[in-house]
Specification:
The complex is a heterodimer of chains A (397) and B (90). Chain A has 9 helices and 22 strands. With 397 residues, chain A is of the alpha+beta class. Chain A folds into 5 domains: 80 residues, Alpha-Beta Plaits, CATH 3.30.70; 70 residues, membrane protein fhac (Ubiquitin-like (UB roll), Roll); 61 residues, no CATH class; 59 residues, no CATH class; 66 residues, no CATH class. Chain A has a 5-stranded antiparallel sheet with strand order 13-11-15-21-20. The longest helix of chain A is centred in the last third of the chain and has 19 residues. Chain A is elongated and about 135 Å long. In chain A, 16% of the residues are buried. Chain B is of the alpha+beta class and 90 residues long. Chain B is built from 2 helices and 6 strands, in the order H-H-E-E-E-E-E-E. The radius of gyration of chain B is 14 Å and the shape is elongated. The two termini of chain B are 14 Å apart. The chains are: A alpha+beta (397), B alpha+beta (90). Strand 2 of chain A pairs antiparallel with strand 5 of chain B.
Chain lengths: 397, 90
């Protein structure tokens, strides 16, 4: 291994030795302390591999042993340097590109801002840019620690910030403070969000406009945002408007409906697919890849248009249209009446469930199968009764 | 020859390696793939199927297939290839 590397550094020459007694030549070489690296025989000639420095001492030996030698190959570092001497610009180019790479690497080319939710990125970017961290700036000129302090001071909504320079990219990582929600103190009524029958009404602020057992419609005022004073009816001064507050519980009804066919036709993809490619150049369509469509097989087709990016020359309208043909099997599924009923029940419940808020309390649920003389359809109606808070603030203009 | 046996006895007594005392070749084989001959006196013949190495007394015949000589120096010869037979010819 090491001797191989040494041979490479010193250079090796492969020569062809031809003559009557090549063995004699080899013995002479050994006597002269020329070490031969490898000897093989080809036809009647010896192929001898030896070091470059030894090669120059061969001449007297060759004369003495009356043979002829011929260089057939050479390799190693000395020959490489010789080659390079003829191609100086190659080396220069390599060095220049290395230097260029090194110079370009010492600049920041990208500034990323990570972890922003409510603060705008541009606001942070403005501060960061102002501090001198922008694309095209020298890496050494940026002090990340000072930058972090500065950002924290400039934008008080930020709890923690870290500026990291990795390669040519500067990453500004931000963690925002969670600010307490601002309470709306504008005067407001509480109105109904849904139709229903009031079961409970507790006015914490303002005056209740409805009472227990009343039927309300969506949009009706439930609690008025008017300050209560005992003699409000007597004074003529306009009532003081306040923000109403309270709990209004009501019974609300939801209705869901669904139907299921007993006999269904289903298209099912078999997994086999074929792709047709069409190239469109200036309104001419060139079919690059065709799909053989036989009438006994059914297909679903998905068409995908691929245009050039916007920055390309859009005048030359080249466009490729890729259509994927999925083979489908058509199946008829026949459901029993019970199964169809279950399915439509589930569907109807799902539609109702999406309407009911999570805080609502379900009081009762009735499921009704509609008896309509139709052979192919099972219709199901679901009624759900809930108790829930239907109050919602509405600011008084 | 008599002198040699005396030397040999002396070497045996003093536990000196005999190859140094008697100027014998040291032959090391690595499986049938490599054969290293130290203390030789040159090669007589080389073909891919036969290598004849001259020793102090007589010669060593290495018979095999695809034989190759590697690392030839004044003290050693390395024969590489598939060695089939080694014969001492005095």
């Amino acid at each position: 291994m090491i001797s191989n590397i040494l041979n490479y550094i010193n250079g090796t020459v492969t020569i062809k030795v031809s003559g009557t007694m090549p063995e004699k030549f080899i013995n002479l070489c050994m006597l002269e302390k020329i070490s031969l690296l490898r000897i093989t025989k080809k036809n009647d000639d010896f192929i001898v591999c030896l070091g470059l420095s030894d090669f120059f001492h061969l001449r007297p030996l060759v004369r003495k042993s009356q043979i002829r030698i011929q260089v057939i190959n050479y390799g190693g570092f000395p020959f490489l340097t010789k080659k390079i001497k003829h191609r100086k610009m190659l080396v220069v180019g390599g060095i220049v590109s290395l230097i260029l790479l090194n110079i370009l690497m010492s600049y920041i080319w990208f500034v990323d801002i990570v972890g922003v939710n409510s603060i705008s990125v541009s606001q942070i970017k403005a501060v960061v840019y102002e501090q001198g961290l922008k694309p095209g700036v020298l890496k050494d000129a940026v002090s990340t620690k000072r930058m972090e302090e500065r950002i924290l001071r400039e934008i008080p909504e930020i709890a923690w910030v870290s500026v990291n320079v990795t390669g040519t990219r500067a990453v500004v990582e931000v963690v925002e403070k969670t600010m307490p929600k601002e309470l709306d103190k504008a005067p407001a009524h509480i109105i109904a969000t849904k139709d229903g029958i009031i079961t409970d009404i507790i006015a914490l602020a303002g005056q209740s406009a409805v009472k227990k057992g009343d039927t309300v419609k969506k949009g009706d005022i439930l609690i008025k945002g008017v300050a209560y004073d005992g003699k409000a009816t007597v004074t003529n001064s306009p009532p003081q408007m306040i923000r109403a507050n309270g709990i209004v519980k009501a019974r609300v009804w939801y209705e869901g409906y669904s139907e299921t066919e007993l006999v269904k036709i289903v298209h099912e993809r078999t997994g086999k697919q074929e792709i047709a490619v069409t190239l469109k150049v200036l309104q001419n369509e060139i079919l690059l890849k065709k799909v053989a469509i036989s009438p006994e097989r059914e297909f679903e087709v998905e068409v995908f248009n691929k245009k050039l990016s916007w920055w390309r020359n859009s005048d030359i309208a080249v466009e490729s249209i890729i259509s994927t043909f999925y083979e489908v099997n058509t199946k008829t599924i026949t459901l029993s009446i019970e199964a169809a009923r279950e399915e439509s029940k589930a569907k109807a419940l799902a539609t109702v469930q999406s309407l009911i808020p999570e805080t609502a309390q379900v009081l009762s649920r009735t499921i009704e199968v509609l008896q309509i003389p139709e052979t192919n359809l099972v219709r199901v109606k679901v009624n759900v009764e809930t108790a829930e808070d239907i109050g919602q603030f509405m600011n008084i203009p | 020859m008599r002198k040699n046996t005396q030397w040999q006895r002396l070497a045996g007594m003093l536990e000196i390696p005999q190859d140094i005392v008697l100027d014998l070749p040291r032959i090391t084989m690595l499986g049938n793939q490599q054969l290293l001959v130290e203390n030789h006196k040159g090669i007589i013949e080389y073909t891919p199927s036969l290598v004849r190495i001259k020793l102090n007394q007589g010669e060593l015949l290495v018979i095999g297939k695809n034989l190759m000589l590697g690392n030839l120096q004044i003290e050693q010869i390395l024969v590489e290839g598939t060695v089939g037979e080694i014969k001492y010819d005095i």
